[in-house]
Amino acid sequence: MNDDLQVSLFKDFPELYQDMESSRTVFIFECGDGWYRLIRELSEKLVDIIKSLKFDPDLPPKASQVKEKYGSLRFYMYWSTDEMETLINSYENLSEKICEICGSMGEINTKRNWLSCRCDNHRMV
Predict the structure, then answer these.
(1) Strands (E), 72-119
(2) Quick check: helix, strand or coil at residue 45?
């Protein structure tokens, strides 16, 4: 994901991404820009849940990794509730129908044993 989109997620959701930003490397969100909207929506919902939780301030629920794997989104947290995991799973499933490149409707396809979700315009040939 491009730097501007990453920075907007860090800025808008510090409750979720604070640790990722402080240890920021080139590849924090290891996926294409097409999933930005999915990640933003998921982040909004996760932060709403986090704000309603009582947790040890020394161990807040934080994202640890966001990436593409086997053609779909993977969103990992240091710890999470069942409600959070259900939400994360639903967005990971949605990503299997959204082009990782542009955000249009897509489907998972394979090229040389590499799975990716792409629309017709970005399909790997």
Answers:
(1) 72-77, 107-111, 114-118
(2) helix
Contacts of 39 (CB under 8 A, 6+ apart): 1, 9, 29, 31, 66, 73, 75, 91
**pTM of the entire predicted model:** 0.90
Q: Which two tokens stand for residue 9?
A: 């997620």
How far, in whole angstroms, is CA 81 from its chain's centroid?
A: 17
Cα 32 from Cα 35, distance rounded (Å): 6
pLDDT in tens, 86-120: 999 999 999 999 999 999 999 999 988 889 999 99
Task: Give SS3 for 90.
Answer: helix
The SS3 call for residue 63 is strand
Instruction: Kindly report the number of other CB atoms within 10 A of residue 105's CB atom.
Output: 11
Q: Where are the alpha helices (DSSP H) in the chain?
A: 3-12, 14-22, 36-52, 82-94
Type of residue found at 78: Y
The closest alpha carbon to 74, from 61, 62, 63, belongs to: 63
Neighbours of 124 (CB within 10 A): 11
